[in-house]
Design goal:
The chain is 0% helix and 0% strand. The protein is low in regular secondary structure.
Length: 123
């Protein structure tokens, strides 16, 4: 009867490369085809924040110097003086009379009149 199976052994050492002189190198291969365009990469990390620069020189007063920045809008001014009187207008003309208007509605009845009779003569 055969004995029990033994334990697995340790791997052996790596062998040395073969002799390169055994064969002759072949001719260079043909140039490969151009590969497909790759995907866009992910955004890079944010750069470091720089230091504040030194204060610039004051502006000059010469024509070749740069103009300054536009100033802020000022406050409204005070009311001005009254102007001169205007010229006299043209005289009014006599226009064409208009048409007669419509009659108005009837008013309420008036109060009763005095009785009619002989009048007394005054002496």
């Amino acid at each position: 009867m055969p004995g029990a199976k033994g334990e697995r052994g340790y791997p052996g050492e790596r062998g040395v490369p073969g002799d390169a002189l055994m064969g002759t190198p072949g001719p260079p291969g043909e140039r490969g085809q151009v590969g497909e365009k790759g995907r866009d990469g992910s955004p890079g990390r944010m750069g470091l924040i720089g230091e504040k620069g030194e204060k610039g020189f004051p502006g000059g007063q010469c024509p070749a110097c740069y103009p300054g920045h536009k100033g802020e809008k000022g406050l409204p001014g005070l009311p001005g003086k009254d102007g001169r009187p205007g010229e006299r207008g043209l005289a009014g003309g006599t226009g064409i009379p208009g048409e007669r208007g419509d009659d108005g509605p009837l008013g309420p009845p008036g109060p009763p009149g005095r009785p009619v009779g002989k009048r007394k003569r005054e002496s």
